[in-house]
Amino acid sequence: MQVVTNVKDIIRSNLSQNSALNGISCAGMEEADGRLFLHVQDMVQHGAKCVLIRCSDTDIVVIAISYYHHLHKLGLKELWVQYSVGTSKRFISAHSIAQKLGDDRACALRGFHAFTGCDSVSFFNGKGKASAWTAWDPTDEQMTRAFKILGMPSKDPPDHILPVLERFVVALYKAEPCQSVGEARQQLFTAEGKPLLFIPCTFGALKQHTRRASYQGGQIWGSWNVGMMFRRRLVGGGRWRMASGSLIGQQSPTSGKHAGT
Questions:
Q1: Where does the source fall among the domains of life (predicted)?
Q2: Which of 55, 68, 179, 219 is deepest in the core (most CB within 10 A)?
């Protein structure tokens, strides 16, 4: 039996030869969600074909679906999530959902979930996940690409996705044929008499909302694997070594010599 846990900020395994994570620092991971899938990837790289995750958080379900295709390329066949709330328990086939959605849409699910509301990003008032899912046109490649970008690590979301996200919000509030949230606000407020509470936010507020969604979907949920790849590249390059969970620089075998001498 293999046990993997944290000792302060360092990941430890009782079978260090069966885990590439032993000794790695997880101090830079803001949430445990990403760390969980770092462990799943480690299991897959050491031969696991079927993985079961137990959780009570819908974020985990979304992340599992969004990362299945990445893990499948490493050898994973089935990814199950045991989702429990109180006495209710469900087994969710994340791999089946991801396969049905396809690679791009499954990957974009992180950004979609963050943008439409999660623990740290506000929801659009009166608009739940079912309404948001209906507004996401599966044939709209630009919209899928915009959500996919929100789920990738970046300092700030690029400006070119804002008009696409505006179209999504307009569709969410059923304000077509408006092309912007400003037009939608005017139509819903003046022509239909909607209260301010039930019309879209301003463009400025939408831009800030997009930045929050990008931070959650990309920097937190989407960056765990990037950090691990960076760490491995340094360690495997021959110029660094791990010592007590830290990277220690060491001289290259050819240090001080010309190549080929």
A1: Eukaryota
A2: 68
- Report pLDDT digits (tens) over 1-46: 667 777 777 777 776 666 777 677 776 677 778 778 888 888 888 8
Provide CB contacts within 8 A for 57, sequence distance 6+: 33
For residue 140 the two structure tokens come to: 């709209």
Determine the Cα–Cα distance for residues 17 and 35; give it in Å rounded to an integer: 19
Rounded Cα distance, 172 and 5, in Å: 42
pLDDT digits (tens, 9 = 90+) for 117-133: 998 899 999 999 999 99
The one-letter amino acid code at 251 reads: Q
Q: How far apart are CA 207 and CA 201, in angstroms?
A: 10
